Batch of 3 targets.
Target 1
Amino acid sequence: MHAIRIASYAAFSLVGYAACQDLELSDCSLLGPIYPMPVSLTKSPIIQDTRTSFKTLLQDVFDNGTTPWGDFDVANTSISLGVLSTQTGDFLSEYHHTGSTPLIKAGLVGGKLDADTLYRTGSIGKLLTVYTILVKLGMEYWSEPVTKFVADLQDARDDGPVRSINWSEVTLESLARQISGLPRDSSSTDISQFGAAAVELGLPKLDSGELLSCGGAGAQPCTPAEFLRYIEAQNPAAPSWQTPIYSNEAFQLLGLAFENITGESLSDAFKSGIAKPLGLKRTFWSPPANDSNAMVANPPGAQTFDEDLGGFTSAGGQWSSLGDLSAIGRSILRSSLLPPAVTRQWLKTTSLTGDSTSVVGMPFEIFRVDVPISPESNKTRTVDVFSKNGGLGGYSTWIFLSPDHEIGVTILAASPNLGGSAVLQLSELALATWLPAAEAAAREAAATNIAGKFTSNDGLNSSLSLEMIPDYKGLRLTELVYNGTDILALLAQDGATLQYMSLRDDKQLSFRAIFQSLQQPQSTSPKRAIASQCNLAWGSIDLYKYGGFGLEEFIVQVDGDGKATAVEAPALRTTFLRKG
């Protein structure tokens, strides 16, 4: 019928293997969501069941103080936890726990934990700093060297690459991405602040000029001039752009640079650029005086809740609440304050680490999580979860955002015995519960609303079928016939699955077909370094074009409930209408 197949021109065609009995169809996908999220996530039976089961899980955790990932001190810890969605201003799940010991109970000003209760949020401030700069300045200044905006660094010492920082290479972007090569801290973690006690530990005695005069525990915050003097005297931790190294100094410099560019303090910029448009009332950059709803948890001998960190606040040290932090996370996922393209660029500005499961963003800590493709499957797909954590004294905070699922998790903890363990264990529990639930809800909605048989009404023998195949990702394109021609056979493809491309309006969703091939099961072949089963899937998009359109492009037309009414194949100049 067709003497020449189009795909014979493409390298690595696997048609010859089709007759082999030990082959299986590949299951490749692109980075990003596989399906659109349901039009109304809160109405999903899976989400409704998860809300109920998660509350029961949390009650059990706080009754017993244990999770599958470890234990924590329930009696000495107070927690506020919320699961957010872009579709609603209400929480998908909200839970508060007040510790039972007299000390932690006495620290609850106002008598009851709720979404407005204040906690210290530590290095969440790094996220607030970058977000504020993006809202105020966009992407304009990030590639500029910091010396352009912090002039004192232009005359910094130059003792060679081992003993001095090459400031000309340090850009604002490298500071925000934790890849500038700067050390972690100039003063706050310097053990010399403890004086004789440090010497008694066996460390050498320092001259008076080498001791800290600011920035240490119980000391006054450093002025900008003092901070710059300390930072200029340090050796680099690494070359710029070499490897992510956590640095509070980087964000102090970023704050100075912003204020020199704009003439506006970061705190004022946050208020006008983020707090006011989002209606935030419970986030502060300076100590809130006599607040009537706060969780005060100071470790012995410290006054963490009231401590003003001065210029360090651009690196961390704000006060905020579950409600406000969740609203900030929701606004990022929604692109409420940034153009969507800027949000996407921001989230894709990343640096690799020595761990294949973690990536550093600007300033996100990004975890590459394996999420089951369905509740019944052992197969998983990789989901990037964007997080930022923070710790200060007895406070620990973590916010997680899943752009693929348009949901997030916010957890704040306070404990005089430090609350980091509680936040870590609860974070694992929340992600292990809600990411699979959101994935399953999207899959279920796609099976109900998009899968089906579609035919053209132009008098030609043309049809298209989409099915949800158990244990496989995406909607399987099981049939694509145009005017009697089997298009998949024409392209010499063994199979294809549709993936949602995050392009949409009220009536249309864009999908691309990922062509799949029959291959040896991965478990029976050696692990490949450069040609694994799916690592080049991203290179196959738009491989076959006809009249300016990709043959793998499909536009799904939907009604107000998200139900597919038709599927358009632009390259075939045909719209297939839902049958039945």
Target 2
Amino acid sequence: MVLKRYVTGSEETRKRIGAPKRLSYGSTPVEALDLYAAKAPNAPIQIFIHGGAWRGQVAKDYAFPAEALTRAGAHYIALDFTNVTQTDGNLMPMAEQVRRAIAWVAKNAASFGGDANRIYISGHSSGGHLGGVALVTDWKAMGVPADVIKGAVLLSGMYDLKPVRLSARSSYVKFTDAIEDALSTQRHLDKITCPVTLVHGSLETPEFQRQSRDFAAALKKAGKPAELIVGPNYNHFEIAETLANPFGVAGRAVIEQMKLRVA
């Protein structure tokens, strides 16, 4: 299974580049992140938000993109956060944790040699959704600049929750009209301040493809810098693996957005 490759790929990555620094961004044990540091000082920062249908996966199993990014001169951060099985089906705590983590990174970047003016994010599946939510955050209210995020590469996410609310996920996610609206990024395009690259595989289910396609079209119509990239012959899980390859579908998108040079 591809998910097992995430785990083994992450284990192999840690064997090559070393274990990450584990840093807390909040008061509970799950509110922590894995930092894989670049060697250069004042390096740009890539923050990854993992998927798992909002109910699974952990940061340590998403180390596999770290080697390519740190070699290219960027810090790579993988976030941990709660899941809906721990919040009685409520998505809002996850969204708020991701927001607090990004704000923490911005406020503390200098402490680990990061450049707070060059923070980028990426996410896959439900992490792509949470990444989209981060883009429409009132960052000034959290004590960081409104344009704290300089770019996003979102893989196979969901940007309008109405169809998701009608799907099988409603059996464990407790949607309300307010949550559906607040966490549907496509309804708040005016708040987006950075370039957004949407990525999906050509072998994904039609709804995942449509979500990325429609969000990209909506962004462009609103005058926002946006790009849609389709990975030929990749399914929903395989497309995330391309983050580990600086010449892969998603890996190249991240490298180019951050203006990095491949070592």
Target 3
Amino acid sequence: MIHPGLILILTGLFSYILPNNVSRFLMLIVGIYSFYICCSFDNVNSFTLNYLNFELVLIRVDGLSKIFSIIFSFMVLIGLIFAWNQKNKNELSAAFIYSGAALGAVLAGDIFTLFFFWELMAIGSALVIFTNQTALSEKAGFRYSMIHFGGGVLLMCGLTGHVAETNSIIFESFSLNSVHSWLIMLGFLVNAGAPPFSSWISDSYPEASFSGCVFLSAFTTKTAVYALLRGFPGNEILIYVGIFMIFYGIIYALLENDMRRILSYSIVNQVGFMIVGVGIGTEMAINGASAHAFAHIIYKALLLMSAGSVLLMTGRRKCSELGGLFQSMPLTMVCGTIGAFAISAFPLTSGFVSKSMISQSAADQHLFGIWLFLAAASAGVFLHAGIKFPWFVFFQKDSGLRPPDPPINMRLSMLILSFLCLFIGIFPNYLYQILPYSVDYVPYTSSHVVFQLQLLLFAGFAFFIMLPWLKRTPTISLDLDWLYRVLAKRLILYIFQVKFLNSILIKFRQYTYATYRKIDLGQSLTKNISSGNMVLSVGILLAIYLFFFYLF
């Protein structure tokens, strides 16, 4: 069997040396074939290799890996169509490496293979950001790399400890009874955008190109959700991590002025719903998290395509600089509004039939407080993504801008995703059939539909009542990334200032002189030296050695 992820990676590498038009058609053919392979998978283990007395399982197919591989391979195709006119072919090459690595990670049956593709995914996604070739994208790409390689170190330490303790590399459920298990979970949570690293999503994704951001939204966080579903289902702490992410995303999205940062914060918010499902851990919850990941990839890509189209055609991304675009970009407006309705879980959209499964799983486990938080969060999602994004971009004031709808390839990709948002919402059984467990759930009950409509109606009234306070000005919102983006930078610069280094050298000379006076050199070989002085001296010498070793 051909590995669908590996052929995407090889295509991405090979396309660097091909002419632009040739590489596009090669990518299209390979993308279609990869999608066909993923849709044709049976629940079997295949494609194994032996390495250091371990069996590497490059492809493990079951209900969980199959649903993620299908939507990942589909997004490769739809992202390629949207980016067909992208002049920078290096971006698409990086995107294919990135998406192929994500496919490899969700198909991995062992932790060695998982880690290889995990790190390759970090490299590919960073390259997608760098290929935008702006000063902001270069800085954001560096910060993105720093966070993800740091998360990779945590994951590597945890996986190494697990292998040393169990002598097994099978990727299965871990129990949180050891340090290495916690390190593995933390490594997964970094990629999921969990606190305190939630800000990397809004810091990096908006700095990618109009098309690069679509690829970025689909893979990294959802691969992390898959890894948590596989490795840590039913761990209660994840419920509270998810709740924090949900409300963190809502609050910052309401404060934000940049349309793509609004949608980036909503990624954190929506992944929070999925992680709550992981924490609940029942079959219904796992089905709900998987279904919501599937639906989220579709409607989030649609929203970012809508925002990317506006960015491409106007050159602007601030809500305070936009408005009235429905007059000249009607198709983009309609597609963006459908995506906004889907993320808000309107009945007859994909978000309604997926998100409600997570809420139902909380109710089934008598987690009334969690259910209440999820219901309140649904109203918050409608405020920031369901109304705020389309209202300030396409309606509200007239900015005087009259750009046309984007090129036909971009319109086609938005229409396909809009159709899927509605089709899945109207016929949810097509989605339920590919979930990890058999589904006995009916989303369209009168009580559920009426409750959801009441909730959304209340949120809509609240938005327009608070509209004077929600109008954005040309400002920025400080997030936790400020701590390492600004504060840490200033601290490092201060440490390496001449005055600071001179003070350290003066202290060192004083210590050396005091030690020299204290020890009689004539009897240094026979006189006892206190153990404290000896340990301190060795420690200082070791610190100096390490400093110069890592510096040079």
